[in-house]
UniProtKB/TrEMBL annotation, chain A:
Compartments reported by the entry: Cell membrane
Coiled-coil segments on the chain, per record: none
PANTHER family documented for this protein: DIPEPTIDE TRANSPORT SYSTEM PERMEASE PROTEIN DPPB-RELATED
Native organism: Aeromicrobium ginsengisoli
Source species taxonomy: Bacteria, Bacillati, Actinomycetota, Actinomycetes, Propionibacteriales
Region feature Disordered, mapped onto this chain: 1-20
Protein name per its UniProtKB record: ABC transporter permease
Regions crossing the membrane: 27-53, 126-144, 156-180, 225-248, 283-304, 328-355
UniProt key word Cell membrane: yes
UniProt-listed GO biological process terms: transmembrane transport
Entry GO terms, CC: plasma membrane
One Pfam family linked to the record: BPD_transp_1
Topology in the lipid bilayer: Multi-pass membrane protein
Keyword field: Cell membrane, Membrane, Transmembrane, Transmembrane helix, Transport
Family: Belongs to the binding-protein-dependent transport system permease family.
UniProtKB/TrEMBL annotation, chain B:
Family per record: Belongs to the binding-protein-dependent transport system permease family.
NCBIfam families in the record: PRK10419.1, PRK11308.1
One Pfam family named in its UniProt record: OppC_N
Entry keyword Nucleus: no
Protein name per the record: Dipeptide ABC transporter ATP-binding protein
SMART domains, per database record: AAA
Membrane-spanning parts: 25-48, 97-119, 126-150, 156-177, 267-289
Region (Disordered) residue spans: 867-887
Gene3D superfamilies documented for this protein: MetI-like, P-loop containing nucleotide triphosphate hydrolases
Lineage of source species: Bacteria, Bacillati, Actinomycetota, Actinomycetes, Propionibacteriales
CC terms in the record's Gene Ontology section: plasma membrane
Top-level taxon of origin: Bacteria
Length: 361, 887
């Protein structure tokens, strides 16, 4: 065997610049694929909502039945365009959605897009506060539990997580109300009526109470708004925080067993840094992914929390319209929620891509 | 299915047995809570003092919102009913809804998930879309809408409960679907499913027998999660006023809704009691689900049970057969080596014990050896010999379940018993490690440069900029092409060999005195292995580092080692200079081990069998896999033609990704060819549908690589071997039983194995069962895809011997796929070499392996280290330094 038979300079098998060359950078390509996948899903959701609402029967009879005679009902149906063929209505509904038109309520003739922007802001605010509580609980406590696996802190924290998962959000809300009302802590609404009236004068009016309060600039009002948010945010935040806690714990335990963690220890990286930089960062990838799925849970929880604390958000409005059997309103609001869920999951995908280079490149 | 019922009835105690400590407490507490609620629900009429809707007793009104009293322990509601009675009756409603919801959603979700995962195609895509849409949607809203659709609002008891259950079902079907579908996707690519398909098992049987039985272990966990969410959703429905009509049944959520205004008025009893009931029942169910998940999740099990003791027993059996009664702990030590040396690292009497769920395991029993600067000491041994454990013990990298005694001295410092903060500065600075699997030893979310810099900055107080410069230097030193750019690459952007170079760069970053390399080339192809070994040697020469090389590969030992330490079951049996050990092994185990290693170029495989009739004829075969979005198809097999005659073994060799396995899979119809034809015994098998192929399937058998997954874990050995007979023949049960016994006899497994399950067998035994199954139908053609590469060398020798004997006796044609040229050299008549999907060279064994014509074959053969230090040194000199460029 002579030396020259061994062909020199084999090409390196995996040269990424050669392997994945495209017109777009990989992140943009990835996000485009995600968007492309969201579209059919949105279409399925929207169609499902439309069909469900038609199965119930005709919305006018459901909402006004008993109060109006047959002739008046027919007249109203005609006015709302509900006597036309199903396909025509579906087409109108879909094209309307493409223009951002979610329809009009039947009972009080309001634009649903208006309802969404007005009350959606309240729900957004509640979710924001709740997420702060959830992160504040879930991430540090999850890390703590993983660190003391199977020891006392872990046992207590796991029981705590299971307990807050087991407690329905509205029951936690009720307990908070029972506990704090006697001390005069505000436990219903987003602010006192007077404050709400004051803040209506803020320009630009965002309807996100804390932003309005900050724009108004009165510290007393800001404090009041914050006080009102504490109990609902805690109730909703505990629910999501429990999920985060368990997720962080279990993923951290799994990444702590990975070879690269041992490898980092073997090159003399300090234990604190191993946990923070290697185990925790990698554990975040699945945690963020699952968080995307938690958006639905958060919104469902928001409906219940809003009812418990009379927080006039989109969930609160939705239950009012459901009770009034206004299915056009329900259809519009539910569709809007579906859109919000899809957009949010898209955002989560983007965050995952930022955390995990395997997705990015 | 009687077997399944049996395993279910055994499942609960088994789970309890597997649990321990807190887990067991949580599990039992959960079961106790659930049992209490079930009893309350069944005996509700006896336990409740009043009816759930009664607001008076004997004509006397209870009064509204009365505080708890002797008559009404839990007080009365705003509607004037007894809270205690409503809570008790509410248990019934809750349990009815849970049971209905769990049963209904598993009945719908499980079959859908199975079908969708197994069949794939458009059905799968549509279902995934719909289920994802349902899943993404806030479940409570969906339940409300569905319940309104179903009932038009409120309804009676039966209708109401059914409606609630159905609305909850709609919400939870996607969860079952998703879990079962992904489990199915994972299981369906397992070799045991492939091997069922190879013998022509029909889809329904595959789904039931092979897939469902293995997927079903997920059901208890999602079932309990589903149950707890069902209660919460039901309560949520009630709380919003869309659940069961309150006069028809007691429901906790509805009661909480009514109690909402009370909360602001200090009336606590109307909400606390029903709310606590919800919390308790969900708690019970969740405790069970959570602990089941913990116990069943293999990722969270305590280590120690990982090396199946059956494997170790097998090696022991081989050992005893070969060596007689010699105590393994008697060490044969060469006198010359005990001369005074200055050791860089010296172990004495090192012992490691693991505490596991199954008791104490003695992994290492007091071993002593040392390594001098500039010396390479190889530690060799088979599975369970304790070679890796001892090296990790040195750096304190074992899990906390390990207890280490003895001494490990680095120069004059004792490493054992050092605190974490004392040993940290030593790790990576004075003693560093190279790991077996470079793709898992590198953190995927950081660039390789970042990780090298991290190691440098852990020990040296230098700026980021200087550290980066050093990282580039190091990458250059380990032969990484274009280090200025590669320093910013993420691990997944590099090839396996390049990743291992990065790991080595990290190991030498701080000029350590000792490098411990734990199977550094086991995960790599042979040409890459040669280059990496070359690199390690050159680093040793340049830096004077002491290297402890842990390996199972005798060729690598012969190539690298100055001295060799042979380990067996936690003991050192022999240590000697490399040349001496290979020339005159003293200990019987060493001799047996060396005898078992096939030696490329010295094997006497069979000659040609030219006159027999053709069995396999592959003509111009092309196999392509569709590329991703906007990417071209990947051509795995590129215009390959080959043939095999009766009684002939064709060894198909090549490195990973060369397409050799794809040829095997295409031959048996597990993969459709893109073009080209395949004939087996004169019948065309390519391009046939499953149905057309089924009668032909008895003509070929298949043995898969991984003994751990080539047999269905839920089927007994007898059932595994009998399956082809059931599917393909009309034999009666007693005929089948007799045939199974004779088959097991022929692979030297007695009749006692018929009733055992795969996990009770060792790797070598499982491969023998696979062989028996593949031969059950007396096939004309056997395809063996790396049948011994997961086995230890002494076990491999035994299986290969058995294989050769059966092949000679039964005269089947065999396509023997392997990456190991030496193994092929022992048994093939002819050899075919593949590279990048194309056939490079094909011909008689002596010619291809002894006098190769093609450059690639020459390179491949030059890269194989042979287990003889003298010969290997000549080979190394002959091939020069050119393999270094391969990564």
């Amino acid at each position: 065997m002579t030396a020259e038979v061994l062909a020199p300079h084999e090409p390196t098998p995996a040269d990424p610049s050669r392997r994945r060359r495209g017109p777009l950078n990989p992140l943009a390509r990835y996000m485009l694929v995600r968007v492309a996948l969201i579209i059919p899903m949105l279409w399925v959701l929207v169609t499902m909502v439309f069909l469900l609402m038609r199965v119930i029967g005709d919305p006018v009879t459901a909402a006004q039945g008993g109060r109006l005679n047959a002739e008046q009902i027919a007249e109203r149906k005609h006015a709302a365009g509900l006597d036309r063929p199903m396909l025509t209505q579906y087409w109108e509904y879909i094209t309307g959605l493409l223009h951002g038109d979610f329809g009009t309520t039947l009972t009080d003739h309001r634009q649903i897009s208006g309802i969404i922007t007005e009350y959606g802001a309240a729900t957004l605010e509640l979710s924001f506060w709740a997420l702060i509580v959830a992160f504040g609980i879930g991430i540090p406590l999850g890390r703590l539990a993983a660190r003391y696996r199977d020891r006392l802190p872990d046992v207590i924290l796991r029981l705590f997580a299971i307990l807050i998962y087991a407690a329905p959000v509205f029951f936690v809300g009720l307990l908070l109300k029972l506990a704090f009302t006697p001390f005069g802590w505000p436990s219903s609404g987003r602010a006192s009526t007077q404050t709400e009236l004051t803040l209506d004068n803020v320009h630009p009016h965002t309807n996100i109470m804390i932003v309005d309060a900050l724009l108004w600039g009165d510290p007393k009002i800001i404090l009041e708004v914050l006080q009102h948010a504490v109990l609902p945010a805690t109730a909703l935040g505990l629910l999501t925080g429990g999920v985060f806690l368990r997720l962080v714990r279990i993923n951290l335990l799994q990444t702590l067993r990975m070879d690269y963690v041992t490898a980092a220890r073997a090159r003399g990286v300090s234990e604190r840094r191993v946990v923070r930089k290697h185990a925790f960062r990698n554990a975040l990838v699945p945690v963020v992914t699952v968080m995307g799925m938690q958006i639905a849970l958060l919104l469902a929880g928001a409906v219940l929390t809003e009812t418990t604390f009379e927080w006039k958000g989109i969930g609160y409005e939705l239950t009012q319209y459901l009770k009034a059997r206004d299915f056009l309103a329900v259809q519009g609001i539910v569709t809007a929620i579906a859109v919000i869920v899809c957009v949010a999951s898209l955002l989560i995908d983007a965050i995952v891509a930022l955390v995990d280079p395997r997705v990015r490149f | 299915m009687p077997t399944r019922r049996l395993s279910l009835s055994r499942a609960v105690p088994a789970v309890v047995r597997q649990s321990h400590g807190l887990q067991r407490f949580m599990l039992l507490l959960g079961f106790a809570i659930i049992a209490a609620f079930v009893i309350i629900a069944i005996f509700a009429p006896l336990l409740a003092p009043y009816g759930f809707n009664d607001d008076r007793s004997g004509g006397v009104l209870f009064g509204t919102q009365q505080a708890p009293s002797a008559d009404h322990w839990f007080g009365t509601t705003v509607g004037g009913t007894d809270v205690l009675s409503r809570v008790i009756y509410g248990t019934r409603t809750a349990l009815e809804v849970i049971i209905l919801a769990v049963v209904l959603s598993s009945l719908v979700g499980v079959p859908l998930g199975l079908l969708s995962g197994y069949l794939g195609g458009w059905l799968d895509r549509v279902l995934v879309l719909i289920m994802d849409a349902l899943y993404a949607f806030p479940s409570l809203l969906l339940a409300i809408v569905v319940s309104i659709v179903l009932t038009g609002g409120a309804s009676g008891a039966v209708g109401g409960i059914l409606a609630a259950a159905i609305s909850i079902t709609v919400v939870f079907v996607p969860q079952y679907y998703r879990v079962i579908r992904s489990a199915t996707l994972a299981v369906k690519v397992e070799p045991y499913v492939d091997s069922a398909r190879v013998v022509g098992v029909r889809t329904p049987r595959i789904l039931g027998r092979h897939i469902f039985s293995n997927v079903a272990q997920n059901l208890p966990v999602i079932g309990t999660l589903n149950a707890s969410e069902a209660i919460l959703t039901l309560a949520g429905l009630g709380f919003l006023g869309f659940g069961i009509e309150p006069s028809a049944a007691a429901e906790w959520g509805f009661d909480l809704n009514k109690a909402l205004p009370d909360a602001s008025n200090g009336i606590w009893w109307t909400s606390i009691f029903p709310g606590s009931a919800i919390v308790l029942i969900v708690l019970g169910v969740t405790l069970v689900g959570e602990s089941l998940n913990d116990i069943l999740n293999p990722l969270l099990r305590t280590r120690g049970a990982e090396t199946t003791s059956a494997d170790e027993k097998e090696i022991t059996a081989e050992f005893e057969e070969l060596t007689g009664d010699i105590e393994p702990s008697v060490e044969v030590r060469d006198t010359e080596t005990s001369e005074k040396r200055v050791a860089a690292l010296s172990l004495s009497d090192l012992a490691v014990t693991f505490r596991t769920d199954a008791g104490q395991i003695h992994a290492v029993n007091g071993i002593s050896f040392d390594v001098a600067p500039g010396e390479v000491v190889a530690v060799v041994g088979e599975s369970g010999s304790g070679k890796s454990v001892s090296s990790r013990a040195v750096l304190g990298l074992l899990p906390s379940t390990a207890a280490v005694t003895g001494s490990a001295r680095l120069g004059d410092r004792e490493l054992l018993g050092m605190s974490n903060s004392d040993i940290r500065p030593i790790r990576g600075d004075q003693v560093s490690m190279v790991f077996q699997e470079p793709s898992t030893a590198l953190n995927p979310v950081y660039s390789v440069g970042w990780q090298i810099i991290e190691g440098i900055q852990a020990h040296r107080d230098i700026s980021k900029k200087d550290a980066r410069k050093r990282a580039i230097e190091l990458l250059d030193l380990v032969g990484m092409p274009d280090p200025e750019h590669r320093v910013d690459y993420y691990p997944h952007q590099l090839s396996g060999g390049q990743k291992q170079r990065v790991v080595i760069a990290m190991a030498i970053a701080c000029d350590p005195d000792v490098i411990i390399a734990d199977e550094p080339t086991t995960a790599l192809d042979v040409t890459v292995q040669a280059a990496i070994l070359e690199l390690l040697l050159s680093l040793r020469d340049r830096l004077g580092t002491a290297i402890v090389l842990i390996t199972h590969n005798m060729g690598v030992v012969a190539d690298m080692a100055d001295r060799v330490v042979v380990m067996y079951r936690g003991n050192i049996v022999e240590q000697a200079p490399a040349g001496q050990l290979f020339a005159q092994p003293k200990h019987p185990y060493t001799r047996a081990l060396l005898d078992a290693v096939p030696h490329l170029g010295r094997e006497n495989g069979p000659g040609l069998v030219d006159e027999n009739e053709l069995v396999l004829k592959v003509e111009d075969l092309v196999v392509e896999f569709p590329g991703g979005l906007g990417q071209p198809a990947f051509r795995a097999v590129d215009h390959v033609s080959l043939e095999i005659r009766k009684g002939e073994v064709l060894g198909l060799v090549g490195e990973s990704g060369s397409g050799k396995s794809t040829i095997g899979r295409t031959t048996v119809g597990l993969q459709q060819p893109t073009s080209g034809t395949i004939h087996v015994s004169g019948n065309q098998v390519s391009g046939l549908s499953d149905r057309q192929l089924r009668p032909l399937r008895s003509r070929f058998g298949f043995v898969f690589q991984d003994p751990a997954s080539s047999l269905n874990p839920r089927m007994s050995i007898g059932q595994c071997v009998a399956e082809p007979l059931h599917v393909q023949t009309e034999m009666t049960q007693s005929e089948i039983d007799a045939k199974v016994r004779s088959l097991l006899d022929s692979v030297e497994l007695g009749g006692s194995y018929v009733g055992r399950f795969p996990h009770e067998l060792s790797g070598g035994q499982r491969q023998r069962v696979s062989l028996a199954r593949a031969l059950a139908l007396d096939p004309d053609l056997l395809i063996a895809d790396e049948p011994t590469s997961a086995l230890d060398v002494s076990v491999q020798a035994r299986v290969l011997e058995l294989f050769t004997e059966l092949q000679q006796r039964l005269q089947f044609a065999c396509l023997f796929i392997s990456h190991d040229l030496a193994v092929v050299d022992t048994l093939a008549n002819r050899v075919a070499v593949m590279q990048n999907g194309a056939l490079v060279e094909i011909g008689p064994r002596e010619q291809v392996l002894g006098n190769p014509q093609e450059d690639y074959t020459k390179r491949l053969i030059a890269a194989v280290p042979v287990p003889d230090p003298e010969e290997q040194r000549r080979r190394r000199e002959a091939r020069g330094h050119l393999l270094t460029d391969i990564s």
